[in-house]
User: What shape does this take?
Amino acid sequence: MSHQRHHLRPERQTIPSALPLVAITGTRGKSTVAWLLYRMARAHRLAAGLWCTSGVYIDDQQLAGELKPWAAIVRALSVGDLDVAIQELEPPVVASVGLPEATYELAAITTLCGNDETCMIAPAVRSAPRAHEIVVRAVHPGGTLVLNADDPAVLQLATRRTGRVVLFGLHPENPAIRRCRATGAPAIWYSNGSIVTNRALLHYGSRSAPAATLQPTEAAATSRPGADEPSPRPGTNHRTTIPSEVPLLQVQEIPCTLEGALTFQIQNVMCATALALALGIPPSTIRAVTSRFVPSPAVLPGSCNLVPICGREVLIDGARYPWMLRPLIRGIRQRKPRKTFVLTHDFPWLSEDELREVGRILGRVRGMIVAYGLSSDDRLRTLSEGIAHNVLPPVVVTQPAVEQALRSVLNLARAGDVCLVLASNPEGVIRLLSRLGAEGR
Assistant: This one.
């Protein structure tokens, strides 16, 4: 069993060491990040535990229950029987229960709202600011906090932290990412089809010295080669032979991003990669895991599950609000499929205005919208009003239930089409697809 730990700076030796715990929270993306990181840790042969929405796991085995298995994981960490444990945290639970302060070695806050006002006032998000403050305080002074620089509400949490902060963002010219690039502070970003990191972030995982004790230019220039980097030949100047910015991953080779079309999945990959690098997991392992990772319907139902069935690809997502749908539909449009078939319910928990906005977003696709299981003609009318706001709205048809909708779409879809199922019950849709596949439809 390997044991990899962060070393504390000398002046902090009197503070109790952090447990190798990783906290992951946010409104969307945390489950995907948690599973990605867990797969990376296991691929690196770390003894790992995970507590997420689908249950508690130790070394790929799911345990019965939740609270007792997690307590056993924490005890195993404290005596060195596990290398790392990953905990997915729901903001409402954190806000109401709290977390022990200065305990976690790593924490990440994933995608939230960006500048979307409808997201910021959504009931599911109201507890997030308090929860995020609690998570920041739960990180050990010698630990690392990973933040989404594309979300102003998340980014401002960096001001609450005096220790290590790692930022990730979708553009190298994001002002916060640009400052990191200029000063040598650790960051990871997306640029021209590549996920790029800088020397400072690679240095965190090298364990050669705490990056926080170096000046920014030193952190970018003086780290030793990582596990995937050749050692310099004798007589060469290491400072001048290693670039300060390193392309790490090609999104075309990451299936969960749909060849780079789903930007929120790129954010999730960057977040998990930043955490993995901070844990000392080498780039080669990260590349190997991301190149084959697709959100599993068994453990991540409704998290953009890509299910092949009878020669077609069906994408299942459990998006519940308009602000969750926007990046999903934008990504599908950027992929430029021949046709897009969207199967949607009527989002009974949304107001009429919100449902109308759902229709407006879905109406941007080129193809057909199949509305199934509608609760009333009024809901259909409201959804259709939103769809009609587009210049070239797609055809809208109805089906009594999701099974009839799936059967009709699978008969119509051809190679190059995208079939998106918006499901209030993703597990049920996944079981239905499995049965339809067995029937040979």
